[in-house]
Amino acid sequence: GNSVTQMEGPVTLSEEAFLTINCTYTATGYPSLFWYVQYPGEGLQLLLKATKADDKGSNKGFEATYRKETTSFHLEKGSVQVSDSAVYFCALIGGSYIPTFGRGTSLIVHP
Amino acid sequence: KAGVTQTPRYLIKTRGQQVTLSCSPISGHRSVSWYQQTPGQGLQFLFEYFSETQRNKGNFPGRFSGRQFSNSRSEMNVSTLELGDSALYLCASSGGDRDTEAFFGQGTRLTVV
After folding, report:
1. Whole-angstrom Cα distance, residue A1 to residue A30?
2. Could you tell me which chain B residue has the CA closest to the CA of A3?
3. For the residues B25-40, what does the mean pLDDT come to?
4. Residues 6 or more apart from A69 whose CB is under 8 A from it?
């Protein structure tokens, strides 16, 4: 079946540091890939998505590129802010329409 | 437009009881999915309803069931509650296509005592 693997957290950074959260996936065919963010006490919000190989999703300074050759969709941001502190989920949707989520990576940004 | 609304936000139940959670999707969305989120297991897919039919189902026991009404509103029912059912239950709605974004509600926090 499909699976998504994210790096273990928490990731702790100082403000303005560079962020990378790794995500790799296993799926048949050509899934769509997503990053969601969950702030404390909230549901998940879509951060960005990519629907085919080599697509780059971007939003609010975050970027991720769909790499089919390495089955990866790593999340990056050049300069994080305290307000970026949240839990980030990598997810895919394949042909079965069942979304598969990673375990989530907690990001803590210190001033 | 209004987002996904889940009610109630918080619920405390006793072991052995049953509970019904409600989800109102974004207007026009025909797909509603339910997830269980716990610190130990992360986000686990329960089931998805599309146009009043269960289209997909995760690996949960039969105590977990759901339904969708003609207006796309969905309910999830858990019978014979167990302590391990304590979790945040999230509902997400979408247009139903593979590439479309899922919009999540704030969730219902269920505590079983």
Report:
1. 13
2. B44
3. 92
4. none
Which residues, in sequence order, are bridge partners of residue A110? A14
Q: A18-49, pLDDT tens digit by residue?
A: 999 999 999 988 899 999 999 988 889 999 99
List C-alpha distances in Å: A70 to A13, A26, B55, B67: 26, 10, 31, 39
Residue B104: both structure tokens together = 């999540």
Amino acid at B77: N
* pLDDT above 80: residue B112: yes
User: Residue A6 and residue A8: Cα distance in Å, rounded?
Assistant: 6
Structure tokens given for A103? 């375990």
Determine, for residues B43 and A51 on separate chains, whether the beta-carbon distance falls below 8 Å. Answer: no
Number of residues that this document lists for chain B: 113
> Is the CB of residue A90 less than 8 Å from the CB of residue A27?
no
